Here is the input.
Amino acid sequence: MDAYVRSMKYESNLAPGQAVIHGSAEGLVDTPGALGAGLPAGIYSALNNGAAERPDTDEAVPVTMLGMAKAVVAGNVTTGQYAIVSDETGELSGWTPAAGESEVTYGIFQEDGVAGEFVDLLVNIQRVTVPA
Here is the structure.
C-alpha cells in the first residue's frame, strides 16, 4: 500500500514518529498539546518511514496522512489496537473500544510494541464510536 505523505513545516519541537495536528496556519503542523487537542494531521515520518533526526527550523517534515508509517508508542501496544494520542508529546497508546466509548484514532497498529519503540501503524485518522 502506498502512503499519502505531505511535506509540512512545523511550529514546535517534533520528533520522528509523533502524531501531529494541524498548526496555526495552512501547511503547518504542531504537537497535539493537551491530550490530543486540535485537528489531527498524521504521523511525522522520516523518509522510507524510518527514524530520522529533527530537521532545522523552517524545514519541511514528511507527514504521513494515510498509509503505513512508523510511530512511537508510549506504552505496550498490540497488533490490531487503535492508536490514540497518549499525551501532549504525540506518542501513541493502544485503545480497545468498549460499548459507549468514542475516540479520535490515528490508525491501527500492525505490530506489537513497548514504550519508546517505533512500530508499524496503518494511518487512517477517524473517529471510532461504539454504540452503548
User: Anything to note?
Assistant: The beta strands are 4-10, 19-22, 28-30, 40-44, 60-72, 82-85, 92-95, 102-109, 118-129. The chain has a mean pLDDT of 86.
